[in-house]
Amino acid sequence: MTATQDTSTPATACCSPLVREPLAADEARRLAASFKALADPARLRLLSLIASHQGGEACVCDLTEPVELSQPTVSHHLKVLTDAGLLTREQRGKWAHYSVVPQALDALGDVLRTAHRSAGSGTCC
Amino acid sequence: MTATQDTSTPATACCSPLVREPLAADEARRLAASFKALADPARLRLLSLIASHQGGEACVCDLTEPVELSQPTVSHHLKVLTDAGLLTREQRGKWAHYSVVPQALDALGDVLRTAHRSAGSGTCC
Questions:
Q1: What is the ipTM of this complex?
Q2: Going from the N-terminus, what domains does chain A have, and what CATH number goes with each?
Q3: Hey, is the C-beta of A106 within 8 angstroms of any chain B C-beta?
Q4: I need a surface site. Which of A31, A62, A72, B45 has the fewest CB within 10 A?
């Protein structure tokens, strides 16, 4: 309780939208689409491989072997993650390079955080 | 566990598994199943209605009207969320009552949290 780090944060900013009030239909549709992009083991592994790769980016050529999938299948999954805003794609010569979008992952993670966790930090909710 | 609250936490405990190292296949399957439970707008709204309801629990009889779905459909979605470990169910007389499992939501949210966010807290990663 002595730490001052979070006192500038409005109370409403730290509670999950899920817990604070019933989600509006539009917001629920938007979030469900993001979770759908994550609802596949291969996509989660690809996201993790890219995130944990040097510099938080990876060439598609680095990704096919670890997940044991063909390049077209890997490219399809990467497109789903890119369309969901969780990855960005940059073409360099022959190969596409993918990077994670930390803000997008953090925003989705925050949706799920409950007052239970926030109360544990002693600063809000 | 005094004012220096985070110094006792191992550095590896605060980084998302997604970012720390490539996800193992089993873990990816487990997480994908949880995200699949969330990948539906009606289920997200139901979860949110329960979480934001008084005491973090709600009777199924409170939930059909706000989401404008039939009771069997609502009960199906609640079963998916319960099977995923995100809700608990308690029968009281005629009606089933559902509560959120904050630890399960927090654990899923933490999976998505990146070093980007953790670095902002100044304590780890």
A1: 0.80
A2: 16-112 (1.10.10.10)
A3: yes
A4: A72
